[in-house]
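Posting this for the archive.
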Amino acid sequence: MVIAISLMACGAGESNVLEGNRTGILHYGNGAEPQGLDPHVVTGVPENHLIRALFEGLAVKNPITLEPEPGVAQRWEFSDEGKVITFFLNPEARWSNGEQLTASDYVWSWNRALHPETGNLYAYMLYPVKNAEAYAKGKIKDFTEVGVKALNDTTLEVTLNAPTPYFIQLMDHYSTFAVHPETLLKFGKMTDRFTPWTRVGSMVSNGAFVLTDWALNRHIKMAKSEHYWDRDKVSLNGVVFYPTENVVSEERMFRVEQLHYTAVVPLDKIPVYRERPNTPYLQSPYLGTYYYLVNTERPPVDNVKVRQALSMAVDREKLVRSVLQETAVPAYSITPPDTLGYFPPQVFSYDPDKARALLAEAGYPNGEGWPGLEIIYNTQEAHRKIAVAIQQMWKSELNVDITLANQEWKVYLNSVSQRDFQVARRGWIGDYVDANNFLDLFITDGGNNNTGYSNPIYDDLILQRAPRAQSREERYALFTEAETMLMEEMPIIPIYTYTSKHLIHPSVEGMYPNLMDSLNLKYVKLHPEQTLSGEVN
């Protein structure tokens, strides 16, 4: 209704895009209303876009190559065979209140990010740091034993357990960002969650933009920061983010030039946009996997044979062709193929005969005695269509009845985190380009392991043996061993490998396609002379 009102209100006047091009304000469709803006608490993609506009890490990703480049840190040096990294902070790096950002701010912030009472689901991202895992799990209490030290205001020393090829990439992930200690402590303890420090008028951040307005379920507005160290390179004067769970309304907003950018594109519109000359539709490879989480402690999916049967009864080729409009690649593993040269094993395929035999072995021949199963998914039309297709496949091939339940984003996140589901739709987008980022999801008690899966051999492969491998070949062989084990035990049902799909107004420059669909708003510019031509009905 809010979107409909906004469309009616602007019908007689200047559109958001025309006004935004004139004033330097980007209008951005961002999917769901965010869970929050605390870098050490949230987990979603919509939150990622917002937080990376408000904050900046020690390093950032180049928007074209994804190679790390200076952020808060001007440079970094490796020593002791790659186990010690020294970050040299930019003395001009400032908080949005004008204060200098210091190495001590990072020590305090990583203490918070790793502290057991914070409940940071991404704490494991910092486990490559010496004693970080032990501290996060309460095995040691003294944070000074963790391998992060402020040598002075602008020098941060980080000691790792072992050389970690992707560690600098992690510095652009929001779970490693610094937060402003004094601001957080105004509203509670260091480890408190969802306090008012992230509200308009309270938040102190260090990125290219500052928070100016948050109207729940309507918009989040940001303005260019006066204190950002690289502000001269920031072309935009501000950004307005819109919660656009209704993808049909989002596409309409784009057509009438109320948005410069859409988070997704309705599946049934993609063929039409593909046929347009100078189309605003952009589809690119994307480092992400769409899959179904399985709660391995809830019947009937607590039985591995049931999980295997369900997975083998999904015709992924048909799903990609008929439902997804050829916008994805069938997936038979958690890791996308060719992730920095790593190709995951395929240990199963579409095999309805074997699926029926496994289901019978599990005690449900031809679906007899089936106790029922529910799939939950967050509200979005594409998720519903996929769930309906899979529901029909499981009924046709296995004669089992499946119910579907859609949930609003925050409710869905809570259901998943509390493990209040049997099967749940899930997607994982790489935080850095390495297979480890997908495989470490399923370590025992990992912050984002919502399946109940636990295997000490798997944990040892991912947490101990792979990090200490002496070569890429040895490391990838260990990953293959772990992923084979994972897909045999099937705590997830992989469905497809993503592509990114957006509508981008011709006036926008600097939204480059890349494997992580990573956006750095510092590079975005608007050109008023470029207009959207043509019409899609």
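The chain has a mean pLDDT of 94. The chain has three domains: 2-31+208-280+504-526, 53-194, 286-499.
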